[in-house]
């Protein structure tokens, strides 16, 4: 299992997370809180990439399901990341479907309107990316690439786990992550974030 | 956290290759994985994430106190235990077992009265006073039937066909594996043998503590064609049978 090393935080916390989940499954509420605090940042980051401003709501709903179904889960800390990401993703897709039924100016459209200027993004990229700028970059990717990058980098899943969350073959997810990161790197090194016109989330290359 | 090498000034070329490198191999742990781009993204998107912890904790308490956690059954999508290697091994074992153990198994089956077979798996009474199950017909019969016992036994022992209809093996698998196994064939077999889901634990406790003389033990299993002496089936054969049984139960 040498596959959990891509993100510094993930392996560092996976042991603690696995222990917390096990205790939570025995009824320990404090342990569940520990698991929540370890998982929530990555989960929320992933959901931000999927549903934008509604991420908090969707994450909250996902946690209701996670809390309810905790007894069903089997696995270690890394597995718990994958399991929770799968639940969050289903909630997000439900959310997006509902939005499609009654459109109200999707989060994506609002984000695109708020696109930071190329230079501001570039300046920030010198030392750090703001959340908004990172989201803008990610959401300009085709959705399969955006999700692959988010799951790998933000949630901290390894390749096979990300593939399981997405219901795809590991090879396909690896390719998508590769392309996504390559494109992001290209955009960051260019004279601004809009090296090429941003695409709509979900559009395929 | 994001390290000193984040500056795009460090070289666009470097950034690109590192990103490519990272994405290309997921198994790596080296420093090259900690590319600036990833760190930037992770730091930016993971920040600021308090959320509604209180709501999640309330839901947790509700589920716990109402017994939802205990009653929950693990579905396939809830099982994230790393087990891919095990599955691969099981498949190869299964295939090899079918190929190599098939002959021995068929030979054994031929020498076995049909009624005994069904009796053995389905009609075992759950009562503690289980009489020694119908003795497997003539332990000597199977082994000699294969012309060369040593040849079949070596591969057949670990490679026995997986779905072992063997109570001991099923019971050991049941004890070792948590819920997921309970959807499996082995679990259904146990329930049938025990006379109900609630009886399985007691049934298995009996099965696994019954002295060797009282149980049919798996000498008749194809696992044993290389073990000509059936007088002492004891632990060795039970364990080898268990090996295959637990694997079968996992699937």
UniProtKB/TrEMBL annotation, chain A:
Residue stretches making up the RNA polymerase sigma-70 region domain: 36-100
One Gene Ontology term from the biological process aspect of the record: DNA-templated transcription initiation
InterPro entries: RNA_pol_sigma-70-like, RNA_pol_sigma-70_dom, RNA_pol_sigma70_r2, RNA_pol_sigma70_r4_t2, RNA_pol_sigma_r2, RNA_pol_sigma_r3/r4-like, WH-like_DNA-bd_sf
Leader sequence residues: none
SUPFAM superfamilies in alphabetical order: Sigma2 domain of RNA polymerase sigma factors, Sigma3 and sigma4 domains of RNA polymerase sigma factors
Keywords tagged on the record: Sigma factor, Transcription, Transcription regulation
Residue ranges occupied by any RNA polymerase sigma factor 70 region 4 type domain in the UniProt entry: 133-184
Family according to the record: Belongs to the sigma-70 factor family. ECF subfamily.
GO molecular function: DNA binding; sigma factor activity
The protein's name in its UniProt record: RNA polymerase sigma24 factor
TrEMBL record, chain B:
Biased composition (Basic and acidic residues): 169-179
Chain spans, region Disordered: 1-35, 60-83, 111-183, 203-251
Transmembrane regions: 89-108
Compositionally biased intervals (Low complexity): 143-156, 203-212
Keyword terms: Membrane, Transmembrane, Transmembrane helix
Polar residues biased stretches: 232-243
Highest taxon of source: Bacteria
Composition-biased stretches (Pro residues): 128-142
Protein name, as recorded: Uncharacterized protein
Organism the protein comes from: Streptomyces fumanus
Taxonomy of the source species: Bacteria, Bacillati, Actinomycetota, Actinomycetes, Kitasatosporales
């Amino acid at each position: 299992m040498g596959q959990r090393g891509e993100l510094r935080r993930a392996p560092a916390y996976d042991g603690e997370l696995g222990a917390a989940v096990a205790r939570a499954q025995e009824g320990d509420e404090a342990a569940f809180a520990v698991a929540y605090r370890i998982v929530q940042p990555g989960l929320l980051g992933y959901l931000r990439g999927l549903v934008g401003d509604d991420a908090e709501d969707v994450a909250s709903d996902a946690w209701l399901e996670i809390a309810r179904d905790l007894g069903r889960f089997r696995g270690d800390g890394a597995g718990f990341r994958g399991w929770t990401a799968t639940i969050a993703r289903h909630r997000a897709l439900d959310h997006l479907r509902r939005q499609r039924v009654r459109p109200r100016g999707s989060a994506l459209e609002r984000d695109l309107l708020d696109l930071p200027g190329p230079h501001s993004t570039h300046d920030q990229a010198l030392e750090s990316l703001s959340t908004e700028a990172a989201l803008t970059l990610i959401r300009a990717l085709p959705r399969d690439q955006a999700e692959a990058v988010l799951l790998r980098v933000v949630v901290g899943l390894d390749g096979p786990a990300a593939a399981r969350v997405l219901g795809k073959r590991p090879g396909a997810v690896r390719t998508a992550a590769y392309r996504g990161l390559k494109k992001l790197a290209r955009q960051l090194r260019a004279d601004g974030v809009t090296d090429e016109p941003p695409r709509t989330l979900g559009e395929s290359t | 956290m994001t390290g000193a090498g984040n500056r795009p000034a460090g070289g666009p070329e470097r950034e690109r290759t590192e990103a490519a490198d990272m994405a290309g191999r997921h198994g790596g742990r080296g420093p090259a994985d900690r590319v600036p781009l990833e760190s930037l993204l992770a730091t930016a998107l993971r920040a600021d994430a308090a959320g509604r912890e209180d709501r999640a904790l309330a839901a947790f308490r509700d589920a716990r106190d109402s017994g939802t956690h205990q009653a929950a059954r693990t579905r396939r999508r809830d099982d994230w235990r790393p087990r891919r290697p095990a599955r691969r091994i099981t498949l190869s074992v299964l295939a090899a077992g079918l190929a190599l153990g098939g002959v021995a198994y068929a030979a054994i089956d031929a020498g076995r009265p049909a009624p005994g077979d069904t009796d053995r798996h389905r009609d075992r009474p759950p009562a503690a006073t289980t009489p020694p199950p119908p003795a497997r017909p003539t332990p000597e019969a199977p082994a000699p039937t294969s012309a060369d016992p040593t040849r079949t036994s070596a591969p057949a022992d670990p490679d026995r066909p997986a779905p072992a209809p063997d109570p001991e093996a099923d019971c050991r698998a049941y004890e070792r594996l948590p819920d997921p196994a309970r959807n499996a064939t082995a679990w259904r077999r146990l329930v049938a043998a025990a006379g109900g889901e609630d009886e399985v634990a007691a049934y298995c406790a009996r099965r696994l503590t019954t002295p060797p003389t009282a149980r049919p033990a798996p000498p008749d299993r194809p696992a044993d064609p290389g073990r000509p002496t059936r007088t002492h089936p004891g632990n060795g054969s039970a364990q080898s049978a268990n090996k295959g049984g637990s694997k079968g139960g996992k699937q």
